[in-house]
Amino acid sequence: MAKKKLRVGILFGGKSGEHEISLRSARSILKAIDRKKYDVVELGITQQGRWLASSDSQALLDESTTPADTSENSLTIASAAAEPGSGAGIDVVFPVLHGTFGEDGTIQGLFELADIPYVGSGVLGSSAGMDKDAMKRMFFAAGLPQTPHVTLLRSEWRADPKKSTRLIEKSLSYPLFVKPANLGSSVGISKVKSRKDLAEAMDLAASFDRKLVIEQGVGGPGVKPRELEVAVLGNDTPEASIVGEIVPAKEFYDYEAKYELNGADESVSIIPAKLTVAESKKIRAMAIAAFRACDCSGLARVDFLMSPARKGRPAEILLNEINTMPGFTSISMYPKLWQASGLTYKKLIDRLIELALERHKEKQQTSFTR
Asked: What pTM value is reported for the model?
């Protein structure tokens, strides 16, 4: 008897500012996934937050069409998972949702309630990886080196900008990076070289989140740190890929540099990064420590900043952030790092599904009642 194929739901789209990036990732996965091994169900979410049935989900992926706006075609992952005997059940979900409502623990909570295996970190790991303030607190508790920073609430900034400015300048020195705490793909991030640009940057970040993270630039004025990335894969025993480097087409790796510039203006990735054996070993170990500090599982990309050596001082390696659902197109940094480490894109998809099932099986060992 032929082995029953796993029914895999590929969940994409969503309400975040990274909706289009999610569609790109989903297209790549749907093109590469092994159809001999899996029955694949497309599950799309519109930018308005409406869940779509498979036929309309396919239309969402097609840039030339728009899915019909009819509630009759709506679906929820809970309803699909609740009736496994109906033929509509899903064995495991691969949520290729980037940003708010996708990698912040909210959708993961729904999967937990539906008791369905899913790719990626759980509620805590996802929410900690999304909230740069909480993430940095976990990194600090784990003794991981990071750049000095200040966290302010939007209400604090709007109530007294002058007081907030004094607090920032007392704690940090320019240049600064101002970020919304809960957002990805560098949306809402500004580099601030002096006080005259601070208010505009704070207002921009405040339009995307109630919590603002202000970081001191690595290396000081005029220094452009190297941007290094490591892909981590696993559950309780995670592994780190080789280290890669991004050379941004702009002053820093913002949304435009990541996704909108092409040809001669495109950012360049260097895999493997040109590092000493000791530097590479240190960065990979820090990536795994960051993954564990945030209680992540499945996958994550861990980003670092490295200031150049100067005046007899060695280069400084600082942890920047962790991304629990990084871009997943075939040319995104996360799959490229594993490709260079010996794991193909198709095999990476297989491994992530295996890890989702492994994590769900491990969960079954936990008693939730007396």
From this structure: 0.89
